[in-house]
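Example record used in the benchmark description.
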Amino acid sequence: MSLQPNQLLRTKRGLGGIRLLDHPGVFYPKSVLVAAPGMHPNTGMPYRKPPANTISSAGAAALFGICTSAMRLRLHRHKVRFYFVRESVRAVTVYWSLRQVQALHAKVVEFSATPPRGMVDWRRAIEMLPCSRTSLQRHARNGRVRVRRLRRNTASGTQTMCYYNVADLKKLRTYLLFCAEQERAVRERFGRRPRRA
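Model output (structure tokens):
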């Protein structure tokens, strides 16, 4: 007994091109019909190469001047579109929508053609203390020096630059000189270095 054309079982395309039975009584899980976020919509697997107009997590982190893990958290919090790309057999890299990342960067870091009043760049700041740039960044993270991030036009393009408050730098310089003098006095008296609070 042969089936009539109107009696043939209909099929539909599932994830990865597989053929699924199209029947009101048959239900399929969402993972079979729709790709997971960040995966290729046709295969349900990571992309083989980065899509156009995307940026990696490391590139976005360099743009914002923060670590890669903090950058991923910020982009996820702002619901930026992402893509998983399998660049090698084991490694999977996350790429983000470049347009959304640039829009977020423009909101977070404002543009200024001139340095803020009462603030200096990092080169002048390490001359005032004096200390290394790493120590200056550590003091800024600890809240000893107020810092402001601005975008400026440079010879190599638009870059994000940090400016530090001059009054805080002067106070910190006085404190560091006092600590150095205390260390020198203790070393001369007891022959050892004191503990810092």
